[in-house]
Amino acid sequence: MMDAIVVDHISKRFRIPHEKRTTLFHNVVGVVKRQFNYEEFWALNDVSFTVEKGETFGIIGRNGSGKSTLLKVLAKVLYPDGGWVSMNGRVASFLELGVGFQPELTAEENVYIYSSVLGMSRKDVKKVYEGIFDFAELKRFENMKLKNFSSGMYLRLAFSTAIHANPDTFLIDEVFAVGDEAFQKKCTEKINEFREQGKTIVFVSHALDAVKSLCRRTLLLNEGRIVSIGDTEKVISDYLDMLQTS
Amino acid sequence: MWQYRGLIKNLTIAELKNRYQNTSVGFFWSILGPFLLAIVLYVVFKNLFKQEENFAVNLIVGIMAWRFFANGTMSSLSSIVSKPSLVTKVYIPREILTLSTVLSNLICSTLEFVVLLPIIFMLIGKMPATVILFPVLHLLYFWLVLGGGLFLAALFVYFRDLSQIWEVLLNILIFCSPIIYPLSTVPAHLKTYYMLNPLTRLVIMYRDVMVAGKLPSLSDFGIVIGFGALVFLVGSFTFGKLQRRFAEAI
Question: What is the pTM of this model?
Fold first, then answer.
């Protein structure tokens, strides 16, 4: 089986300055007074794992354990300070829905922008265009400016565009855990559909039930390190143990 | 970059739409504004520079050329910072954000010059054939603005007072270029230093091909190409180095 994702000894360090310095003036003052105070903090420390093609892989852990940082490194948004990542196939990251949406433009224009952000060509978008609006049930509002959309409509449009992007690998942060129950159900159905199509999915969540039902293998992070990795049932029980002992 | 051409196109168009959205005469503001400015400057300076040939038309060509530099660099400055979600929530080569901003400025500026052509014809009564060299000049200029834009956009993520600094520098630079006054007023002993400014040479070239009907001198051309290459290299190198931590610093 081919690996969709190979993560090799990834580390990521954040600097937490004691005072925030974002102007040239403050930087000059800092150099003169020699006050370059910051704390270093390893958000990820020597993390290695592989995800097979067609696998649904879960990442769990407490708040601040490095889950989202890991996903951002996989998405290439953050640059690792050590190690390397290799991804096969076209990757679409869903750290947030509706990235690049512009309120002053119409729904139609925004669908084209968002799709191209997710790596689709105009020709591909044309093919699924009707499908996007049918799924979102927003056909009537095609030419309305996005600023006049309700938050629910906005979300439906974003979600519908996202799932039509058709990448090989999905990186999903808890974005799909939004909206009402009916919407959530639709999301879960959609993720199941992608699994059946043999898409690779990396899924970060606090919802242990969702992880249990979707993922065969799971990774547990704590303070930037891998605590346990493997069979989902086992990793979740490790996680519950960890929560109890601390 | 080629695989992202669709995205570049969409972002450029979105930028243009956003700029002229909700304005009643849309694009014509960008020709009306500089034109009114040129009229004011002409009225103020016409006695001072009355021996100058084609002062009015040179003035407007200079202002239009300057606008591309000023607007292009000023809007690229915030091209990264103004779209945080495209930096922190998804991966696209970040150069695209600056590139699409400069491209939308290029389109505006080109249209402004196109509208200017009949005005030039009216004012000087002929249309120089050398005007066909305009696209070459404008692309060369675009290259320079893009290089500067990449440099400024990357630095602005880390140093937010750069916008104020750049505004002041632009104000100084417009007076160090022959835009609102003719080149002939520059004292001879300062001319060597004055000609080091590549914008001076660019403005001269625009006036050569659009008004005087002369071919631009090869030395001007060579120097501007060399300077453009240097700015572009420094700009893209700086951008490439700094973009790794954009998502943390934004």
Answer: 0.91
